[in-house]
Inverse folding.
């Protein structure tokens, strides 16, 4: 409840109006039966038409107040509950922007989506119920009990005897539903994960004709989620019939006792009518209040899952007084860097040292799993090193403000990611205020201008979801253009040329050389041809530097580099080198 109250207090004024509308609604629901009872016992019994008309006018007036209160109550509930859900989703998204790769790996993308969408929606439903019934029920119950006691103390004992049974039933239902709710939300995480994997990997599934296997995997997860949902719905659905059965039993008892009282003249017909209304409102409001307790376990599970995200402290933190003015990058250096993933047992990188200066190109090569991509992910602080230091201009990168550090870097990831929107918007993602000339220049350098102009709408051509309307090579070139448009001090190419043909690769590298001659260029590659002209090549093997130098030097001094080159170059090319 603390979690919900914290958000509820953001809308104090609207909450106050909601409370007033609750009292107005309660006044109508309980005031009209009282007036009708008086009309029956006074107006009808005495055949006083003037009194009946007068009371009828009062009922009409109260009804208008009730309509206004009901509309206002509905407005306030909807406004507050939707606003709170919006705030929760904004807070989760904002918190997620602070997460490093480690936090995302810990939660999982599918679980983050579920927490942002489904869990926040569960909170919305619960808040709506609270504002409508949790505030209304105490008022209705207290006033109803007072009025029933005032009408007939003897009949009131029937209500008093019924209430504990309802409360006990609600407590048992709430206790039984909590573990089911936890399992339901967890199974929803799995369902979202499998759905996401199937939708993004549909081509691979079809290529290997594994449709039946994936269908079975989805069915198993879907059945698990459905099973827990059914159990919860069955549990919830039993509460209403049991409640109405208890209420009908109470009504029968009241009529049986009231009949004898009317026969003895100790109870009037109007009082019985009013008492029956009070009974209905007391018990029905109690049932609605019970709905809050029934929904609470599920909302509590969702709130706990959301709170876990909001309470998570990112491993990568921004220094309070970080350096905000880098004033250019003259040198980047690794000093005995060792790194192990938070959940890993062995270091991925061990005692890695090198330096690269402005205007130089440094390349990294090695077998799969040698730590190349991990190494360059340390520079923008996607992960923090375990030991040693990474410095820019002699300052540890942990001393820089994160935005300043990352603004100085043009990062082209191994998997080119484009966003839904126009090609222009995707290139401008690297620099929000980029001019049209800058966008065109970046596209030309990245060798993407020609295929962009072949599109019907040119730079206004829309990129579809997952960029399915452009090829892998085109995605890589657009990613390179996105980095080029910001003209950073450090360029990081994480195997960003792998989808390009040799001709395009050669032309692109030639143009990049002109564009990046005043920057530091770091290249991770598998192709020897891509890095042959680098000023320095670092050869990695199982996280260690086993070779450092230029292409020709490494062919003679580093066996691992020679093996890689021999697998890609002909004997004539190796002999020539």
């Amino acid at each position: 409840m603390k979690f919900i109250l914290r958000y509820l207090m953001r809308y104090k004024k609207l909450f106050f109006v909601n409370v007033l509308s609750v009292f107005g609604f309660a006044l109508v629901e309980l005031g009209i039966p009282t007036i009708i009872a008086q009309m029956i016992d006074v107006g009808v019994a005495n055949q006083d038409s003037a009194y009946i008309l007068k009371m009828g006018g009062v009922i009409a007036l109260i009804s208008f107040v009730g309509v206004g209160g009901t509309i206002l109550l509905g407005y306030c509930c909807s406004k507050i509950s939707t606003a709170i859900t919006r705030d929760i989703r904004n807070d989760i998204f904002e918190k997620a922007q602070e997460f490093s790769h480690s936090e995302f790996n810990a939660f999982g993308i599918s679980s983050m989506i579920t927490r942002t969408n489904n869990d926040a929606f569960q909170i919305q439903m619960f808040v709506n119920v609270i504002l409508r019934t949790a505030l209304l029920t105490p008022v209705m119950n207290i006033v109803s009990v007072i009025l029933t006691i005032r009408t007939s103390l003897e009949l009131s004992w029937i209500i008093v005897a019924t209430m504990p049974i309802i409360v006990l039933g609600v407590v048992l239902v709430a206790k039984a539903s909590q573990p089911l709710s936890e399992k339901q939300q967890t199974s929803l995480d799995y369902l979202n994960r499998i759905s996401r994997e199937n939708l993004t990997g549909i081509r691979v599934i079809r290529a290997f004709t594994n449709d039946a296997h994936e269908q079975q995997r989805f069915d198993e997860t879907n059945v698990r989620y459905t099973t827990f949902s059914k159990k919860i719905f069955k549990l919830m659905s039993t509460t209403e019939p049991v409640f109405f059965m208890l209420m009908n039993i109470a009504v029968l008892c009241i009529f049986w006792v009231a009949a004898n009282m009317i026969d003895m003249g100790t109870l009037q017909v109007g009082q019985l009518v009013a008492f029956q209304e009070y009974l209905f409102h007391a018990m029905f409001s109690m049932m609605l209040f019970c709905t809050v307790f029934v929904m609470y376990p599920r909302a509590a599970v969702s709130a706990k899952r959301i709170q876990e995200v909001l309470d998570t402290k990112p491993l990568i933190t921004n220094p309070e007084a970080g350096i905000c003015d880098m004033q250019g990058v003259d040198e980047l250096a690794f000093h005995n860097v060792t790194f192990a993933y938070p959940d890993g047992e062995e270091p991925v990188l061990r005692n890695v040292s090198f330096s690269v200066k402005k205007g130089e190109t440094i390349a990294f090569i090695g077998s799969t799993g040698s730590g190349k991509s991990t190494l360059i992910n340390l520079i923008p602080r996607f992960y923090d090193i375990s030991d040693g230091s990474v410095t820019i201009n002699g300052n540890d990168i942990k001393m820089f403000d994160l935005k300043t550090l990352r603004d100085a870097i043009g990062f082209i990831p191994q998997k080119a990611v484009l966003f839904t929107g126009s090609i222009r918007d995707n290139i401008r993602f690297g620099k929000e205020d980029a001019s049209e000339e800058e966008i065109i220049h970046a596209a030309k350098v990245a060798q993407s201008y020609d295929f962009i102009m072949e599109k019907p709408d040119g730079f206004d051509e829309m990129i579809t979801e997952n960029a399915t309307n452009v090829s892998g090579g085109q995605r890589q070139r657009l990613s390179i253009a996105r980095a080029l448009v910001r003209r950073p001090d450090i360029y990081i190419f994480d195997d960003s040329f792998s989808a390009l043909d040799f001709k395009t690769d050669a032309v692109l590298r030639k143009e990049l050389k002109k564009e990046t001659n005043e920057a530091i260029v770091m290249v991770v590659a598998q192709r020897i041809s891509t890095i042959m002209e680098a000023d320095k090549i670092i050869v990695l093997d199982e996280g260690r530097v086993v070779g450092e130098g230029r292409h020709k030097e490494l062919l003679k001094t580093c066996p691992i580099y020679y093996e890689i080159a021999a697998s890609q170059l002909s004997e004539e090319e190796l002999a020539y080198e």
Remarks:
- The two ends are 72 Å apart (CA to CA).
- The domain at 325-408+489-577 is CATH 3.40.50.300 (Rossmann fold).
- The longest helix spans residues 211-264.
- The mean pLDDT is 82.
